[in-house]
Protein 1
Amino acid sequence: MAGIAFFDLDRTVLDCNSATLWVRRQVRQGHMGKLFAAKMAGMIGLYQLGFGNVDDTVKQAILALKGQDESDIIARTVAFWQDEIAHRVRPGVAAVLAAHRSQGEALVLLTGSSSYMSALVVEALGLDGALCTRFEVQDGRFTGMGELCYGDAKLVAAQAYLADKEAALIDCAFYTDSFTDLPVMLRVGRPVAVAPDPRLKRHARRAGWEIADWG
């Protein structure tokens, strides 16, 4: 089969970090305490600079969902997408997607965002699938457990996705803004840094990788 084009979401396909906007919205609506929100904001800030390990903070966020109704989170995510995110897709994304489609290549989101946000992006952009962070649900409620899709876990997810397909990472492209995605960038045949953070920009220049600006 033809190769696959993988896309990060925040600050790559989108011109913002949706996690930051989600945290602010949850505080405004009374769904999240200000202290935990401040901790999340600090983690996101380090992530945007290419530093920090988000695992512990995200695991705490997933644990905080324990017992909550999945349908409520889905409804809140849909409203969030419609109100604050749908219009934040970078202008240059459509042309890149069209170019890959014309080559018969699958388009797959590879992101740390939730499965709920990812599903909305897949539908809106006509993508072929998403590899993302997923929450465990039993009887319609969150168990407090989940699988993160971040850093090395993105590489594992991409490799698993390709395992039953006639393609390898060397046949694939990956578009991202973040240095934390280096494990995947080092393995794909076409790594593209989109509006990269400072560390990824330096690495991309040294490696001779394409640096893109999608507006």
Protein 2
Amino acid sequence: MDEKILEEKRKKTKLVLSNVYNLPAMSSTMMEVSKLLDDPTTNTATLSKKIGKDQGIATKILSIANSPLYGLRRRVSTIDFAILVIGFIEIKNIILALSMMESFKNKTDKYMDQKEFWLHSLMTGTAAKRIAEDLDCYKGGEAFVAGLLHDLGIPVIHKYFHSSFVAICERVENEEVPFLTSELEQLGYTHQDVGKFLGEKWNLPASLCNVISKHHTPSLLEDPNDKTLAAIVHLADYMTQRLEVGSFYWDKEFVFDEKILEVLKFENMDALDEFVDKYKGAFEEELKLIKI
């Protein structure tokens, strides 16, 4: 694509995204929950009561807590117990991630199934947490949030650039062009760039923004910690495709970045695929338990 045309598309996209940032982002309930989490005197009962006012968020927190991949060893049936076993810091991260996803959610249509997207995001997040802990290479809670938000740019494009979203999908379907290529043609940016832009506007940690921006090509990141976290998310994303559980059509031509083998200390692809195959049962069990 001509560089001038590309730059023009980028300017238009940035202008829309700047306006997205200025919109009210969180529900009043989530704002109140966020304030409570910042108050050291807040107790579990108060926090639980406030979260319970938003049934959508409460249901999602319980789904996360009861995920076989998330790794809690007992059944969690109430929000107060979820807070107790997950901890305030991790609950805060989960709620921030969920509030972002809720803010940019749109109605389901023929081009985007919101339930399918949530399922993929949750599976990637919980798998990323489990991988980080099983390989003992990163904090599980941070890996979960990175996995949950990795595709944040997709619903943003669907909601605020809907005609472009339709054009992206139709070009991919009719001409078999990769999604990332079609995104660049329409917007001048990919969903990775869009996700990073909004992450920075929401003051998310730089490491998380970097992972969102390079979750398809984690080996391109320079910082070793960011590269490790992005490699974990990339592997979790790959697992949803390989195991055919929680996959999302936007990844239908997923290109695996083999350079992460060294980052995550796998000898070769055979060793990695053997590792992945061990997760199949947990993935299938999670699919049965998730409430969406």
